[in-house]
Amino acid sequence: MIYQRSSQLFAEAEKVIPGGVNSPVRAFKAVGGTPIFVQRAQGAYLYDEDGNRLIDYINSWGPMILGHAYEPVVEAVTERAKLGTSFGMPTELETKIAALAVSMVPNIDKIRFVNSGTEACMSAIRLARGFTKRDKIIKFAGCYHGHSDSFLIAAGSGLSTFGVPNSPGVTEGTAKDTLLARYNDLENVSALIAANPNEIAAIIVEPVAGNMGCVPPLNGFLEGLRELCSANGILLIFDEVMTGFRLAAGGVQELFGIQADIVCFGKVIGGGLPVGAFAAREEIMNYLAPLGPVYQAGTLSGNPLAMAAGLAMLESLNNDRAVFQRLEEKTSYLEAGIRNVLTANSVVFTINRVGSMISVHFDAEPVVDFQSAAKGDNVTFKKFFHGLLNEGIYIAPSAYETWFITDALTYEDLDFTIQAIDKVSKTFK
Ligand SMILES: *Cc1c(COP(=O)(O)O)cnc(C)c1O
């Protein structure tokens, strides 16, 4: 495939945008080469600036669960735009999408809309801190909750339970309030709670992790977190920015029957426009301004175009609940196909999958946390990525990412993909 125009556009972009991109993973640093510039997309396909067609397994990192340029969303946004694009005043649309979201997701009474998943998670921990009157939070290594300061934290040295900044610009003062735990390790969480009695406001977790590849919770992990939180006055925050409205209409709370205290959303809930949200039972949500003391705001929060897109998306999912089963079947078919060809070609691999989230790791050991995810063979991954790209298949340009399956994919697309993986994996040796 030819990427001449993409390369030129990237060179132009680099002059005026740091690294040529507005979000780092897009820059192909982990796989080499230059990023592909998209011209348009339709259904399961991206069309790039060189005229190549790519089957898309990223789908804007999740939102396009029903495919690109999905007609009900495009129509809703187009119609809404004619009526004005922002008011900074309430609209009925906001109540409609809020009511629908609250009806779909278990265990939440009220929801507030923001502009990104980052904002949702940042606001959720502020709310949790205000509500519990405690300062510290526990997060898990390898879970991503956006780029706000409290989450850009790495594990401290062996003896310290404190986190340390993971990026210049994050202060040590902020870092000391974030404790790092190992995903799927309840003993580690218990120890952190015991070492910080009555100090922990919240545990925030991706209930199915998707930012170190797809890492499912081991049996009992989420239940254990729920019990530890309830026993210690800690709020359990499910970051469902990736899983919400994807793994089930009610997200992981519904899928595994576990109740969180605060839930964060993003990605699918905006139908491809910039939307995030956080939600909880009334008692907690009423702690927010203007009812309560915890401040949180946004000039473009609840923006009518964004709400129109999100509402059209949620209505489509709500009116066709079979979509989640279809996605499960398509992704399971893809998984089986990939397993077959990789095994036939003697590739060492692990595949993790929950519903329409799937990741291929080039390592034989089970991938259950950040440490095991980091062991994957990146040289093989690069060959895999560029090989597939050459076959017209776009997966995330990093070994740590989940593939997001869209309902727009046909079984023909899936077969084509499996055949391409067969071809590419023969070149690994
Ligand atoms: C994508 C993501 C975020 C951040 O959302 P943005 O809209 O990129 O700010 C937070 N949490 C999880 C689990 C995510 O996957």
UniProtKB/TrEMBL annotation:
<dbReference type="Pfam" id="PF00202">
    <property type="entry name" value="Aminotran_3"/>
</dbReference>
<dbReference type="InterPro" id="IPR015424">
    <property type="entry name" value="PyrdxlP-dep_Trfase"/>
</dbReference>
<dbReference type="InterPro" id="IPR005814">
    <property type="entry name" value="Aminotrans_3"/>
</dbReference>
<dbReference type="InterPro" id="IPR004639">
    <property type="entry name" value="4pyrrol_synth_GluAld_NH2Trfase"/>
</dbReference>
<keyword id="KW-0963">Cytoplasm</keyword>
<keyword id="KW-0627">Porphyrin biosynthesis</keyword>
<feature type="modified residue" description="N6-(pyridoxal phosphate)lysine">
    <location>
        <position position="267"/>
    </location>
</feature>
<dbReference type="GO" id="GO:0030170">
    <property type="term" value="F:pyridoxal phosphate binding"/>
</dbReference>
<keyword id="KW-0663">Pyridoxal phosphate</keyword>
<dbReference type="GO" id="GO:0008483">
    <property type="term" value="F:transaminase activity"/>
</dbReference>
<dbReference type="GO" id="GO:0005737">
    <property type="term" value="C:cytoplasm"/>
</dbReference>
<comment type="pathway">
    <text>Porphyrin-containing compound metabolism; protoporphyrin-IX biosynthesis; 5-aminolevulinate from L-glutamyl-tRNA(Glu): step 2/2.</text>
</comment>
<dbReference type="InterPro" id="IPR049704">
    <property type="entry name" value="Aminotrans_3_PPA_site"/>
</dbReference>
<protein>
    <recommendedName>
        <fullName>Glutamate-1-semialdehyde 2,1-aminomutase</fullName>
        <ecNumber>5.4.3.8</ecNumber>
    </recommendedName>
</protein>
<dbReference type="InterPro" id="IPR015422">
    <property type="entry name" value="PyrdxlP-dep_Trfase_small"/>
</dbReference>
<dbReference type="InterPro" id="IPR015421">
    <property type="entry name" value="PyrdxlP-dep_Trfase_major"/>
</dbReference>
<comment type="similarity">
    <text>Belongs to the class-III pyridoxal-phosphate-dependent aminotransferase family. HemL subfamily.</text>
</comment>
<keyword id="KW-0413">Isomerase</keyword>
<dbReference type="GO" id="GO:0006782">
    <property type="term" value="P:protoporphyrinogen IX biosynthetic process"/>
</dbReference>
<dbReference type="GO" id="GO:0042286">
    <property type="term" value="F:glutamate-1-semialdehyde 2,1-aminomutase activity"/>
</dbReference>
<comment type="subunit">
    <text>Homodimer.</text>
</comment>
